[in-house]
Amino acid sequence: MASKRGALIVLEGVDRAGKTTQCKKLVEALQQSGRPAEMMRFPDRTTTIGQLISSYLEKKSDLEDHTVHLLFSANRWELVPLMKKKLEQGITLVVDRYAFSGAAFTSAKPGFCLDWCMKPDVGLPKPDLVMFLQLNPAEAALRGQFGIERYETSAFQKLVQQKFQLLMKDPSVNWKVIDASQNIEDVHDNIKSHSLKAINTAERTPLGELWK
Ligand code: ADP
Ligand code: FDM
What we know:
single chain, alpha/beta, five-stranded parallel β-sheet, 15% strand, globular, nucleoside diphosphate kinase activity, Thymidylate_kinase, Thymidylate_kin-like_dom, Thymidylate_kin_CS
């Protein structure tokens, strides 16, 4: 009998909602309960493409808007063989941002439609679960100032949030909205319970293709 595949679990959400904190805690909890799990994040700034993106985000270089959008997508596609290999090995992948950030951030720029922004990511491995960490801007502000990277302004983040709301209307994706204003442990318990269900379901279902 073929071994059971791992689940592809994505955390999305506004800046400072707790994505990174929760991805790490989820991976630790899964590993401690004997379930193989690894964390990934997009953009993955370690690859050649990722370094171009990182320099753009740090405002050390400028890139044309369509071009950088396609680089973010290429950065996901270049990791697909590795992701599939790990999932087939039974490793659950917990991913900090994915194609939803890609579509939400670029479509918040003038002159971009959501449909065009989603196209390059059509066919990526489809997450078994996407959790959106919901936090209002006032509460996010209590967690610290915006950083100095590109996109880190409240006006732009507000537009991004609206694009996420549109993406969440798509019933082909298994979205769960998480109240990220709770304390770290309560958010974690919520995320863990959704994740355990997704891991069980993924064992019995083939990996899908996103937005196809
Ligand atoms: P993100 O990856 O979504 O930007 P982080 O996980 O980096 O968010 O968290 C941003 C900041 O908020 C960090 O200082 C983190 O310790 C803090 N934080 C995360 N989750 C919570 C929470 N539930 N309550 C209060 N502070 C939090
Ligand atoms: N971002 C992230 C995009 O614009 N497109 C994408 O496809 C992805 C994955 O890059 F501002 C943006 C979102 C955020 C920045 O920051 C990455 P972090 O701190 O590494 O998540």
